[in-house]
Write a structure and sequence with these properties.
The complex is a heterodimer. Chain A is an alpha/beta fold. Helix content of chain A is about 55%, strand content about 15%. Chain A has one domain: Rossmann fold (3-Layer(aba) Sandwich), CATH 3.40.50. Chain A has 8 helices and 5 strands, in the order βααβααβααβαβα. In chain A, α7 links the parallel β4 and β5. In chain A, α1 packs parallel to α3. Helix content of chain B is about 30%, strand content about 30%. In chain B, the strands form 4 sheets. Chain B has a 6-stranded antiparallel β-sheet with strand order 2-1-4-5-6-7, with helices on one face. The chains are: A alpha/beta, B alpha+beta.
Chain lengths: ~150, ~400
């Protein structure tokens, strides 16, 4: 299952959303690493910039988490599918109208693969575009609900 | 190039394809070094067979002991088998040995995409003085030849009395091909864990074929001004030092010196950081014109991670520019990541690197090759480098408890 994670996962791993969120994301990544799923990441996107910046943090828990993210997921061709800028298309107008510019690349990334899930912490975004996204084969899931139900 | 290993130390049976840079990594005691030692052992058996079998496991820097100590699971009724496969001029050549404590069987085979197939075996007691010249008939490109083989080197002659020039050329080509695996082994050398220079001054010493001790390496360096400049070139790339050999006037005494490019301060290697010191040792051996394959254990030791990265890039340059080949065991994620980064940069092709994750299951070492992609990703990731730290994460975040 291809999964597009919003930037919440990076903020979680940095500890910016509190220790509970950091722990939840850490547990999710370890489950995910053992699963048959993979994440889809747009190269040279805000997500990869934040992931790169995460790796500059040297405090132990964040350092370990960033190392795990890098070595076990982003570096693994079975766990991470990179989408190149040439592979993405402009968003259809109806989706573009509803999606903030900052999040547009996540949907463009999702639309570049088959049957993806976008996991976001933005509940309002889901309410606005879940139906439109579903019509195009993209499922949207809310972060807390997704993490609570995630199994490897 | 491929190596097939049976019953050697923790390796029960393993087929390993060697790329220009072959990297083995994994936990301590998993069996990584066994791959390097297998290649050195095969070299010793094929090129220095006139000794007892325990001599095949004495690499000067380390002696593994007698056959019983080295054979898998110490099963003295088993035989170690080491076979090297190379390709040359459209032929696939395999040369190696299956051996017990007292005797063995040399094996030589060849094949091609057509229907050419040849196989010969020659029993030999150890020590073996390589004095058996055995003739074997072979037919190649509709011509008959006689291969004379002593288990080590092969000569090929056309069988017909009136040999044509063409038949002579084919015979020479076949002889070169049959000897190709042994020629590869001749150019295998090793940089052991114990390396570097411990004295400020050296005197010229006689050289052995493997050049293990520091006096030999220092002597070898001092005698080749072109090697000195190559060592200096790569030392600058990796550690920002240049390298010189300085003789004391009117004597055979010399020093090995490095100069910091940033400060201009020069000193003998023994007074440099050990990272610089041991890197000169490595470069001297790897860049020697007589060496194609360098086996090195943990080249990252004593290097800062940024130097490890530059070292990996220097290996890439040595492969592309100097035709060198490396078999490396490592515990360094920085080294592995830097090589993958070179692939992503298109400075190395995916097929120029081979990564093997080594794990021990029970008593048996397993080498699992991980496919490298053009974007620098690697199938299966590099999770072994972070497994230990994930245990710490449990303490930091109470994850998984």
């Amino acid at each position: 299952m291809p999964i597009v994670l919003n930037e919440w996962v990076i903020h979680d791993l940095r500890g910016e959303n509190g220790s509970l969120a950091q722990r939840q994301s850490a547990e999710f990544l370890q489950l995910f690493q053992r699963s048959a799923d993979h994440i889809v990441v747009l190269r040279r996107s805000p997500w990869t910039t934040k992931a790169f910046n995460l790796m500059t943090v040297s405090t132990p828990p964040v350092r370990i988490l960033s190392k795990f993210l890098h070595l076990s997921i982003l570096q693994d061709s079975l766990k991470c599918r990179y989408v190149e800028a040439e592979e993405i298309q402009p968003l259809p107008w109806d989706l573009a109208e509803q999606i903030p510019n900052d999040d547009a690349y996540l949907f463009q990334t999702a639309l570049a693969v088959v049957a993806p899930i976008i996991v976001t912490s933005d509940v309002r975004l889901i309410e606005r575009v879940a139906t439109l996204a579903r019509e195009r084969g993209v499922q949207m899931r809310q972060r807390d609900e997704f993490l609570a139900g995630y199994r490897e | 190039m491929k190596l097939d290993i049976k019953n050697f130390r923790a390796i029960k049976e393993q087929h390993v394809e060697l790329a220009p840079i072959t990297v083995v990594y994994g936990p301590n005691g998993a069996g990584k070094s066994s791959l390097l030692y297998a290649l050195l052992t095969l070299k010793a058996v094929l090129l220095n067979s006139n000794q007892a079998s325990s001599g095949f496991f004495n690499y000067v820097f380390a002696s593994l002991g007698a056959f019983e100590a080295v054979v898998f699971d110490h099963q003295t009724n088993s035989e170690i088998e080491l076979l090297l496969t190379v390709e040359k001029d459209g032929l696939i050549l395999q040369h190696g040995v299956r051996f017990g404590d007292k005797q063995g069987v040399f094996k030589l085979s060849a094949s091609n995409d057509s229907d050419f197939k040849f196989h010969a075996e020659l029993p030999a007691p150890f020590p073996y003085p390589a004095n058996q010249q055995n003739p074997f008939d072979l037919s190649y490109q509709n011509q008959d030849f006689t291969l004379t083989w002593n288990g080590i080197t092969a000569q090929v002659q056309a069988t017909q009395p009136n040999t044509t020039t063409q038949a002579l050329e084919v015979a020479n080509l076949l002889a070169a091909s049959f000897n190709a695996p042994a020629e590869v082994l001749r150019k295998v050398n090793v940089v052991p864990l114990k390396r570097g220079f411990s004295k400020p001054f050296y005197q010229t010493q006689p050289l052995s074929s493997m050049m293990i001790n520091e006096d030999e390496v220092a002597t070898f360096l001092s005698q080749d001004k072109y090697l000195i400049s190559r060592v200096s070139h790569y030392l600058e790339k990796i550690l920002e030092r240049d390298f010189r050999v300085n003789f004391q006037p009117g004597t055979a005494i010399f020093s090995l010196d490095a100069t910091d490019r940033n400060t201009g301060v020069g000193t003998e290697l023994v007074n440099e950081g050990f990272g610089v010191n041991q890197m000169v040792y490595f470069l001297a051996k790897a860049l020697s014109r007589d060496v194609e394959w360098t086996c090195v254990e943990e080249p990252e030791i004593h290097l800062h991670p940024s130097a490890v990265r530059r070292f990996a890039r220097a290996l890439g340059d040595m492969v592309n520019d100097e035709g060198k080949r490396f078999l490396v065991s490592t515990h360094s994620e920085a080294f592995v990541s830097a090589l993958l980064s070179l692939v992503a940069e298109r400075k190395l092709r995916p097929e120029q690197v081979a990564f093997y994750m080594v794990r021990k299951e029970g008593r048996v070492a397993h080498f699992e090759r991980q496919t490298v992609h053009e974007n620098g990703q690697i199938e299966g990731g590099l999770k072994t480098f972070v497994e230990g730290e994930l245990e710490d994460l449990k303490n930091f975040l109470k994850v998984g408890q």
